[in-house]
Recover the amino acids of this structure.
């Protein structure tokens, strides 16, 4: 495990099954972004920390030119396997803090669940600003509420109580201002967009939620010492068994997409 950035290679084969944003919700989101001119068919778009291509494959299907980069070769291979003949989409391994691209070589960038996994996330921001043209856009998309089930909350609270409250390498994903403040300090301008309709319904059993934690599917808990992790898993399993329906308890969730758009300065 790289001490500076989380590598999702070990869960690559399970990633898509556990991070499932409905395609119709992404379509609504991208219809608006393209319609408002924040993404353009005629300009290449960079997907930074692209993982398995979940966020940019729908854009490639719409005819946009996509280049995705990720530190995980395993995730990149899955992204490449999704590319259809005729699409203008390439995926390669790379580090968001040292992008192998010329200045102003992209019309925009799409970022999702990246900055929380990079210790020096500000450097990644600066690199993205460098490779996006003046006046281009950085689009930051995250799903909210998809993983906030009661089992994970219980596990996280127990970790907090044991002194492991700071579990992300980089930007705390629950902080809503840190990224905005940094990009504004670099001359970027936040743009408000229509967020209606960007939600969906899902459900998860307490047993599946615990299994996901035990499988190590969430980087938030990767850096807990093994003994602490085992202790909290056992505590959480005991808590589940105390519920009226035990492991068969099903929780219904209503996640939504949080979309932030930042316009780069036009330059001098």
């Amino acid at each position: 495990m790289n001490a500076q950035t989380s590598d999702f290679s070990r869960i690559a084969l399970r990633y898509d099954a556990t991070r499932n944003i409905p395609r119709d919700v992404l379509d609504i989101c991208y219809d608006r972004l393209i319609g408002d001119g924040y993404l353009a068919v005629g300009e290449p778009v960079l997907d930074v920390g692209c993982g398995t291509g979940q966020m940019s494959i729908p854009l490639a299907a719409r005819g946009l030119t996509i280049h995705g980069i990720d530190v995980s070769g395993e995730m990149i291979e899955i992204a490449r396997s999704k590319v259809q003949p005729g699409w203008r989409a390439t995926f390669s391994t790379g580090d968001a803090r040292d992008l192998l691209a010329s200045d102003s070589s992209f019309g925009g960038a799409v970022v999702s669940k990246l900055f929380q996994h990079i210790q020096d996330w500000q450097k990644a921001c600066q690199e993205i600003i460098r490779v996006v043209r003046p006046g281009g856009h950085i689009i930051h998309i995250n799903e909210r509420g998809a993983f906030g089930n009661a089992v994970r909350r219980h596990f996280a609270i127990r970790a907090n109580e044991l002194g492991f409250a700071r579990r992300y390498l980089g930007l705390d994903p629950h902080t809503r201002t840190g990224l905005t403040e940094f990009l504004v300090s670099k001359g970027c301008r936040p743009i408000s967009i229509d967020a209606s309709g960007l939600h969906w319904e899902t459900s998860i059993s307490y047993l599946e939620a615990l299994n996901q934690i035990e499988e190590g599917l969430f980087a938030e808990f990767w850096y807990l010492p093994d003994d602490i992790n085992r202790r909290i898993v056992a505590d959480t399993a005991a808590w589940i068994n105390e519920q009226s329906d035990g492991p068969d308890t099903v929780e219904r969730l209503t996640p939504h997409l949080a979309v932030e758009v930042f316009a780069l300065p036009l330059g001098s």
Remarks:
- The first helix runs from residue 12 to 18.
- The CA atoms of residues 201 and 254 lie 5 Å apart.
